[in-house]
Specification:
By secondary structure, the protein is of the alpha/beta class. The protein folds into 3 domains: 31-341, HUPs (Rossmann fold), CATH 3.40.50.620; 357-457, no CATH class; 471-494 and 511-545, no CATH class. The protein contains 16 helices and 17 strands. The strands form 5 sheets. Strands 5-4-3-10-11 form a 5-stranded parallel beta sheet, with helices on both faces. Strand 10 (256-262), helix 8 (266-281) and strand 11 (287-293) form a beta-alpha-beta unit. The longest helix is centred in the last third of the chain and has 26 residues, at 469-494. Pfam families: tRNA-synt_1e (PF01406).
């Protein structure tokens, strides 16, 4: 296609343009692509079921996603969708070795942008650039990997005009006397409605010269106080849907592996994208897989988080109370295509899961440093459990990127490690940690694997906020010294001597004058626990003599 060769970026063209690649399919029926079978399965909105993920080229996935309409602050509903698809892209590239070539459009001209600019008495361009920059900073804060390229609508107007001309040449669009151009849905017959069904289509407001109420605008004639560009139909600007069809085609040609977006975009936006691309390229299947993320709901509400409903929380405000890691874990705990409830309880669950992993990490590292001395158990069982977990994680990721199963597998591994790492012993009213574990290497393998899995998913278990690096490191040392001092004092208080006249079989007891020291140690332990610092005293089984009546739990 000569137009595509002229418009596509030269470097991307050399990388991915495949002259032999062509869209396939007949009518509404989905056709399994020919090419490289990845061995993965993903839910395809075109078929409403899981399908084998087959890519046109081995080791490469072409991926287009709808970016933001930059007229306001991004909110958590947006963040949830972008983070979930970022997780999937990380899985494809870092687990299965697939090079994801991701392109995202920035909608920087739109009815909402024009209205907001008029309200603020600034130019639409300035408004759009301001919120575009904020969006990119939000994505950076959420550790969302940037696409290979962001492409703005306003910088692709000539390509959009040429694309519309191609659709008109193929007799799937028409211009009106007023200078509008509409897509002719009737011209493609029953092929319209691949995602939602033609029966779900509703007309958008428009010119009375439309041939069918369902026809949608490709080009809008200019109005007073609106930005406009020259075209064969007079001055105007692009319709909403045509921008994505044009830009995706200008980069990837007539075939696309994966298209993603929120489920609210399936109709009419993605439906109309499909119609436009297949009309332009004259084929039956342009995009092979459509992935849609579920809505984010406020707990107890059936409505999605949305600017139009004024029930949203901005990303910046959210990150003042929670960390990026906590939000990622929140997203990982549900399937990407499921609706997700936002509440303090659900976020606390994410925070608690991370805290459990952190506590296990500290205990395992303490053992590896030799701070916990104990008897060994069967090391082979731990290695077997680690191998089993690795296999389960890969299976879950290959099955529609099932992150809840992955998190469950990791938390089960942590729980298994904890059971081997520690038991609890009650002695003189104090909880002691009795450690029963294997050689240190297996716990090093546990920690390395857990850290690697979460790094793949975008969760950095070693992350510390930049502003608190020095203070948190100092605080950790202070707590460690305090715990050591308390341990020394308590050991002294618990030391016993044989008392004259006592029977030889009598249980040794600390001297009464030392009991206030024990009480002070217990009080310190409880006070520290109330602020999140938990002291565990390690005792080596076989080297500590239980008093008569002592209980092990």
């Amino acid at each position: 296609d000569e137009w595509l060769r002229r418009q596509v970026h030269p470097i991307l063209f050399k990388l991915i343009f495949r002259p032999s690649a062509s869209c396939t399919g007949v009518g509404k029926k989905w056709t399994r692509p020919t090419g490289y079978d990845t061995g993965l399965k993903t839910y395809n909105s075109l078929t409403k079921q899981k399908e084998p993920l087959v890519l046109a080229q081995e080791g490469i996935a072409t991926w287009y996603s709808c970016g933001p309409t930059v007229y306001d602050h991004a909110h958590l509903g947006h963040a949830c969708s972008y983070v979930r698809f970022d997780i999937i892209q990380r899985i494809l590239s870092r687990v299965f070795g697939i090079n994801v070539i991701h392109v995202m459009v920035i909608t920087d001209i739109d009815d909402k942008i024009i209205r907001r600019a008029l309200e603020k008495s600034i130019s639409p361009t300035i408004l759009a650039r301001m919120y575009e920059e904020e969006f990119k900073n939000d994505m950076l804060a959420l550790k969302v990997l940037p696409p290979a390229v962001y492409l703005r609508v306003t910088e692709n107007i000539p390509q959009i005009v040429a694309f519309i001309e191609g659709i008109i040449r193929n007799e799937h669009a028409y211009a009106t006397k007023q200078g509008d151009v509409y897509f002719d849905i009737g011209s493609i017959g029953d092929r319209y409605g691949k995602l939602m069904g033609a029966g779900d289509a509703a007309g958008e407001p428009g010119d009375t010269e439309k041939r069918d109420s369902r026809d949608f605008a490709l080009w809008k004639a200019s109005k007073p106080q609106e930005p406009s560009w020259e075209s064969p139909w007079g001055k105007g600007r692009p319709g909403w849907h045509i921008e994505c069809s044009t830009i995706a085609s200008s980069v990837f040609g007539s075939q696309l592996d994966i298209h993603s977006g929120g489920v609210d975009l399936a109709f009419p936006h993605h439906e109309n994208e499909i119609a436009q691309c297949e009309a332009y390229h004259q084929c039956g299947q342009w995009g092979n897989y459509f992935l849609h993320s579920g809505h984010l709901h406020l707990k107890g509400s059936a409505e999605k988080m949305s600017k139009s409903l004024n029930n949203y929380i901005t990303i910046k405000d959210f990150l003042e109370s929670y960390s990026t890691n906590e939000f990622r874990m929140f997203c990982l705990l549900t399937k990407y295509r499921s609706a997700i409830d936002y509440s303090d309880a659900s976020l606390n669950e994410a925070r608690s899961s991370l805290a459990t992993i952190t506590a296990f990490t500290h205990d395992a590292q303490a053992y590896m440093r030799g701070q916990l001395q104990c008897q060994a158990v069967q090391e082979g069982a731990l290695w077997e459990r680690l191998a089993e977990t690795k296999a389960n994680v890969v299976r879950a990721l290959a099955d529609d990127f099932d992150t809840p199963r992955v998190v469950n597998a990791i938390m089960s591994l942590v729980s298994h490690g904890n059971r081997h790492l520690q038991g609890l012993l009650v002695l003189y009213g104090e909880w002691f940690t009795v450690t029963c574990c294997a050689f240190p290497a297996v716990f090093g393998a546990f920690l390395t694997y857990i850290r690697e899995v979460f790094e793949v998913l975008g969760v950095d278990l070693l992350d510390r906020k930049p502003h608190s690096v020095d203070s948190s490191g100092t605080l950790e040392n202070v707590v460690e010294q305090l715990a050591r001092f308390r341990s020394d004092v308590r050991a002294f208080a618990l030391s016993v001597e044989d008392m004259p006249g006592e029977p030889a079989h009598a249980s040794p007891r600390p001297h009464s004058e030392k009991l206030p020291l024990l009480k002070a140690c217990d009080t310190l332990r409880k006070d520290l626990a109330s602020i999140g610092v938990h002291i565990r005293v390690s005792v080596c089984v076989g080297q500590w003599r239980l008093p008569k009546g002592g209980r092990v739990r």
